[in-house]
């Protein structure tokens, strides 16, 4: 079978190879936890008990389980069969009676979901960086959410100060600037796929006129990216200090756009 590099199956196939280790490599790391804490704080005040929330690029289900435990019904989709297999196993093991439905569905085909009126949409940790046509996603989501529905979208930034400094100091300039061109080729276990790094301005444009941007929050500004887990796990007091600094900086213009991720809060017009 030929896999077209730009197709959603390319990213799904790549993440299939990572699925078994994803939670150990990211979800359960102290950096992964620190970054997710900020998204969860925002999600807890955005989505309410009784809501029906669509999660796209749900991965192994960490956020779906968190939200379901708060009385929120979740429909969760991902392009990777293996990620969804892990998510279903975690659901059965951790919260078997919670209302979560996981399905294999690339975001580019989200229009295939049966007609419904979701109260909100969550996309966490860069799944949308694997989608080329974000305006298409905006149009599709607009059709299946109710007026006033909230979107929480967390993407990798175009410029990450930590990444630029870290790889420059290591002499790896290609990696130091890999986000700057807006598109780069990534690969897991020899499964290549494209990653897109939209700017804040282009994100705002892609989701309008269907959605209005309400807030922008920087994630991982002084807290380092997850590939520095080994180093930071030996400096946990420094990490605690960085988390406090991030809290002060995360809503400020400039600082909110130079972290590892950015969290956008939007509302259906
Ligand atoms: C970095 S993981 C994040 C997973 C999860 N949201 C989390 O917070 O841990 C990115 C996820 O996006 C999924 N993904 C990538 N491209 C996708 C696409 N086009 N449609 C749906 N899911 C996609 C991957 O399979 C992977 O599970």
TrEMBL record:
<dbReference type="GO" id="GO:0008168">
    <property type="term" value="F:methyltransferase activity"/>
</dbReference>
<dbReference type="InterPro" id="IPR029063">
    <property type="entry name" value="SAM-dependent_MTases_sf"/>
</dbReference>
<keyword id="KW-0489">Methyltransferase</keyword>
<dbReference type="GO" id="GO:0032259">
    <property type="term" value="P:methylation"/>
</dbReference>
<dbReference type="Pfam" id="PF13649">
    <property type="entry name" value="Methyltransf_25"/>
</dbReference>
<keyword id="KW-0808">Transferase</keyword>
<protein>
    <submittedName>
        <fullName>Methyltransferase domain-containing protein</fullName>
    </submittedName>
</protein>
<feature type="domain" description="Methyltransferase">
    <location>
        <begin position="53"/>
        <end position="148"/>
    </location>
</feature>
<dbReference type="InterPro" id="IPR041698">
    <property type="entry name" value="Methyltransf_25"/>
</dbReference>
């Amino acid at each position: 079978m030929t896999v077209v590099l730009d197709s959603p199956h390319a990213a799904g196939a790549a993440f299939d190879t990572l699925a078994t280790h994803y939670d150990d490599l990211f979800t359960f790391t102290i950096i992964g936890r620190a970054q997710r804490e900020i998204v969860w704080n925002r999600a807890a005040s955005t989505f309410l008990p009784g809501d029906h929330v669509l999660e796209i690029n749900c991965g192994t289900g960490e956020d779906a389980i968190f939200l379901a435990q708060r009385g929120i019904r979740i429909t969760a989709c991902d392009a990777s069969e293996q990620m969804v297999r892990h998510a279903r196993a975690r659901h059965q093991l951790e919260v078997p009676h919670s209302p979560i439905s996981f399905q294999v569905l690339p975001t580019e085909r989200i229009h295939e979901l049966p007609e419904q009126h979701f109260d909100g949409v969550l996309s966490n940790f860069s799944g949308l960086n694997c989608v080329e046509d974000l305006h298409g996603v905006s149009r599709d989501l607009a059709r299946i959410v109710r007026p006033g529905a909230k979107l929480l979208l967390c993407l990798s930034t175009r410029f990450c100060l930590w990444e630029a400094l870290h790889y420059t100091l290591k002499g790896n300039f290609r990696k130091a600037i890999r986000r700057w061109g807006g598109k780069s080729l990534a690969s897991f276990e020899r499964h290549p796929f494209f990653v897109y790094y939209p700017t804040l301005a282009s994100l705002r444009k892609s989701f309008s006129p269907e959605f209005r941007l309400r807030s922008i929050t920087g994630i991982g500004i002084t807290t380092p990216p997850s590939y520095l887990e080994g180093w930071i796990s030996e400096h946990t007091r420094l990490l605690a200090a960085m988390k406090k600094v991030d809290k002060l900086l995360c809503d400020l213009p400039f600082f909110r756009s130079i972290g590892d991720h950015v969290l956008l809060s939007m509302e259906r017009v």
